[in-house]
Write a structure and sequence with these properties.
- By secondary structure, the chain is α/β, with parallel strands linked by helices.
- The chain is about 35% helix and about 15% strand.
- The protein is built from ten helices and eight strands.
- Strands 1, 2, 3, 4, 5, 6, 7 and 8 form an eight-stranded mixed beta sheet that branches.
- Helix 8 links the parallel strand 4 and strand 5.
Length: about 270
């Protein structure tokens, strides 16, 4: 049963099983999480104290990547694994550049969808839609009526999969799954991905992953070479696959401290 600070559980929601979106919400100071989520979040934080900064880095990367795409003229976005709404959501960033931008948000957590439908309001000129589906089921996403009513797959689309693919186990073929999405995109479309890695700080990130996995939430660390495979058929834009904080920082961004621990890669590619 949820405590007084937790959201009311839906019939589809198993509150005893932690969900990455709600763990992430807890780290960002949100209240849309349950005891199982908080238990995992605190265990991971204890094992890897830099995790909170890491999720902030991830959110900042999302902002910069979506803004970059909007500035390239992308007006359509498919954001998979959107998470519980917070500041700087994809449609807010894109519509700040072009108010007519259209966004489809996808997540498999009912809590996310309840909040998305309530809070993620489009500019009048644009449009947002919300699809409750699992990343691992591309047909459920790509053929959903709301997806097809919002996005024109004969025109370029920005596919955004930020902070999600590390929860897809190898046996679920994450590379094949992403390819099914990218195969649906026309040339000139873009793919934005962020993914945790142990390349920069092996011991710290190994502890991070072990704490996550102990809480029944699978989390897979992948190398830069493995993460690059998601971009097959795409040309990475400068600076290529980079530590999140080093991917196109804005001139007014606060410089990262010398002891900053990088825990993830980010990259954006253009379909050839």
């Amino acid at each position: 049963m949820a405590d007084e600070t937790s959201p009311s559980p839906s019939p589809k929601l198993n509150t005893s099983v932690p969900h990455p979106a709600r763990v992430y919400d807890y780290w960002l100071g949100g209240k849309d999480n349950f005891a199982a989520d908080r238990e995992v979040a605190e265990a991971v934080k204890s094992a890897s104290p830099g995790v909170v900064q890491g999720v902030r880095d991830n959110r900042a990367f999302l902002y910069r990547a979506v803004r970059f795409l909007a500035e390239q003229g992308v007006t359509q976005f498919l954001d998979i694994g959107t998470g519980i709404p917070t500041q700087g959501n994809t449609h807010e960033v894109a519509q700040a550049v072009n108010p007519a931008a259209r966004v489809v948000y996808v997540d498999n957590d009912p809590i996310v969808m309840v909040h998305a439908r309530a809070l993620l309001r489009s500019a009048p000129e644009g449009r947002t839609a919300y699809v409750e589906a699992d990343l691992r089921d591309p047909d459920a996403v790509l053929k959903h009526p709301d997806t097809l009513a919002t996005l024109d797959f004969e025109q370029p689309i920005g596919l955004v999969i930020v902070g999600t693919l590390m929860y897809i186990k190898d046996e679920d073929d994450p590379f094949g799954v992403v390819k099914r999405y990218t195969d649906a995109l026309v040339p000139g479309s873009y793919l934005a991905v962020s993914h945790v890695t142990g390349d920069f700080a092996p011991e710290s990130l190994r502890a991070f992953a072990e704490a996550y996995n102990a809480g029944s939430v699978p989390l897979i660390l992948r190398t830069g070479a493995e993460i690059s495979r998601f971009f097959e058929g795409f040309e990475l834009v400068e600076p290529g696959l980079a530590a999140l904080g080093e991917w196109r920082p804005a001139p007014d961004d606060v410089p990262l401290p010398a002891d900053h621990v990088h825990g993830a890669y980010g990259g954006v590619g253009r379909k050839l």
